[in-house]
């Protein structure tokens, strides 16, 4: 395997260990929790006494749509069996399993990216354009950060699960 | 390796954790911070349930690791929830800053006790 290397620096050995992927899955859960509670924080803050916007600005359903999209996208992406992505080269897959897997995966990534883009849209159209000042602006900024964290969590989970596949593969040989 | 001193020490730490959380609730007459205790009691459960639901020795069967991963994901979710919940309540002026600090520290002590208890006494159960 080392003779097929492309880069000068070898991949460190700890990347493929089981502990690293365990830590990755835990970290993904932590990041998702952080994003989720940032979103809840925006909603609670909009109802609390600290929200001193004069014509009262509250979280409406529009603010929730990007978060729902992101969470759905994360669910779709991570419920796909990663080994099916290259399944066409094997004999056990019939009827284009890899093609379906790629289509569903594309939908998942589109949902995830759409969530992040949607949160930025809400921030700009609902808060920045109308010249709100900082404590009210947090309702939009927190939403953007929350969606970014959900995306990051999804990426970490993806990498960790791919790591596991290589680890299992090495062990099976 | 884990003798009677470990049990005594862990129970002391657990008692201090509960003391801090209850103090953070009772001192300010605001019992929202007791949610932290519920969170940290629930936190080890997903790992335990999903560990029972799958067979970790089976390497060729890839369906088992998905369940374990889901349990770990939920555990990470709950642990951060125990820190995020008091911070959220403080940020929205539902509790005071002192209550937030006390409940976070107390919750971490409680969770640390649960984790180290399972670490110390898991080995002996398996044999």
UniProtKB/TrEMBL annotation, chain A:
Q: Which GO terms describe its cellular component?
A: membrane
Q: How does it sit in the membrane?
A: Multi-pass membrane protein
Asked whether the UniProt record includes Transmembrane among its keywords, one would answer yes
* Keyword terms, alphabetized: Membrane, Transmembrane, Transmembrane helix
Q: Where are the transmembrane segments?
A: 21-40, 60-80, 101-125, 137-160
Subcellular localization, as worded in the UniProt entry: Membrane
Question: Which coarse location class applies to the principal site listed for this UniProt protein?
Answer: membrane
Q: Does the keyword Transmembrane helix apply?
A: yes
Q: Name one Pfam family in it.
A: UPF0220
InterPro entries in the cross-refs: UPF0220
Query: Into which family does the record put it?
Result: Belongs to the UPF0220 family.
Q: What is this protein called?
A: Vacuolar sorting protein-like protein Vps68
From TrEMBL, chain B:
Where found, per UniProt?
A: Membrane
**Coiled-coil portions:** none
An example GO CC term for this entry is: Vps55/Vps68 complex
Q: How would you describe this protein's topology in the membrane?
A: Multi-pass membrane protein
Q: Could you mention a single GO BP entry for this protein? A: late endosome to vacuole transport via multivesicular body sorting pathway
Q: Which residues cross the membrane?
A: 7-25, 31-49, 70-89, 95-121
Name the InterPro entries for this protein: Vps55/LEPROT
- The answer, when asked if Transmembrane is one of the entry's keywords, is yes
**Keywords noted in UniProt:** Membrane, Transmembrane, Transmembrane helix
Q: Which domain of life is it from?
A: Eukaryota
So what family is this one in?
Belongs to the OB-RGRP/VPS55 family.
Protein name (Swiss-Prot/TrEMBL)? Vacuolar protein sorting 55
Species for this entry: Zopfia rhizophila CBS 207.26
């Amino acid at each position: 395997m080392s003779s097929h290397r492309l880069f000068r620096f070898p991949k460190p050995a700890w990347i493929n260990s089981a502990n690293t992927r365990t830590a990755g899955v835990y970290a993904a859960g932590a990041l998702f929790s952080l994003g989720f509670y940032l979103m809840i924080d925006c909603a609670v803050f909009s109802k609390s006494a600290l929200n001193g916007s004069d014509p009262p600005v509250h979280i409406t359903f529009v603010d929730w749509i990007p978060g729902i999209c992101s969470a759905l996208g994360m669910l779709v992406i991570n419920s796909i069996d990663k080994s099916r992505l290259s399944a066409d080269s094997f004999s056990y897959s019939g009827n284009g399993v890899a093609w379906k897997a790629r289509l569903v995966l594309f939908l998942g990534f589109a949902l995830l990216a759409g969530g992040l883009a949607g949160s930025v849209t809400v921030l700009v159209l609902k808060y920045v354009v109308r010249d709100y000042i900082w404590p009210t602006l947090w309702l939009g900024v927190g939403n953007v950060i929350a969606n970014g964290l959900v995306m990051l969590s999804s990426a970490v989970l993806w990498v960790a699960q791919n790591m596991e596949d290589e680890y299992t593969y090495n062990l099976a040989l | 390796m884990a003798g009677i001193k470990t049990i005594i020490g862990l129970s002391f730490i657990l008692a201090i954790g509960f003391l801090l959380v209850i103090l953070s609730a009772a001192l300010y007459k605001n019992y929202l911070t007791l949610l932290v205790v519920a969170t940290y009691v629930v936190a080890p459960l997903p790992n335990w349930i999903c560990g029972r639901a799958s067979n970790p020795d089976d390497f060729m069967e890839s369906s088992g690791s998905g369940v374990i991963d889901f349990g770990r994901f939920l555990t990470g979710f709950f642990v951060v929830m125990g820190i995020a919940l008091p911070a959220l309540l403080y940020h929205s002026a539902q509790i005071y800053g002192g209550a937030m600090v006390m409940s976070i520290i107390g919750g971490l002590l409680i969770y640390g006790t649960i984790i180290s208890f399972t670490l110390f006494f898991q080995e002996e159960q398996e044999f």
